[in-house]
Structure formats: C-alpha cells, structure tokens
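Need a sequence for this fold. Nothing fancy.
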C-alpha cells in the first residue's frame, strides 16, 4: 500500500498517457489521491470524465 506523500503514475484504458498522482492519505478505509496533471494528461482525461458524468446523469 502506498503511503501519504508517495507518488506514482496511473494507467487507465482509453487514456493515451500516464496520470501522475500523489497520495494524500492512506488508511484501512482506502487511499486518497490527488492527480497532478500536465496539459496533455488533462486534455486526454477531460473527455473521459465528461462521458462518465453524462452516463451517470442519464441513469
């Protein structure tokens, strides 16, 4: 398990780049992360998140 302050990249299917993040807190309830996105990663992630939001609103 990653500890608070550690960083790592996350690879998601459908995203053509790695999404770097920093662990803000980690405990038995889960790991809370903050993404640290450059312009390229942000541009690639935004359409995916928008699509997820539309799916959720339609449900």
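Here you go.
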């Amino acid at each position: 398990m990653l500890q608070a302050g550690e960083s790592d990249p996350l690879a998601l299917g459908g995203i053509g780049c790695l999404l770097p993040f920093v662990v803000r807190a980690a405990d038995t309830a889960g790991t809370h992360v903050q993404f640290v996105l450059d312009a390229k990663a942000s541009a690639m992630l935004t359409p995916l998140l928008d699509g997820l939001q539309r799916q959720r609103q339609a449900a």
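For context: The chain has one domain: 7-58.
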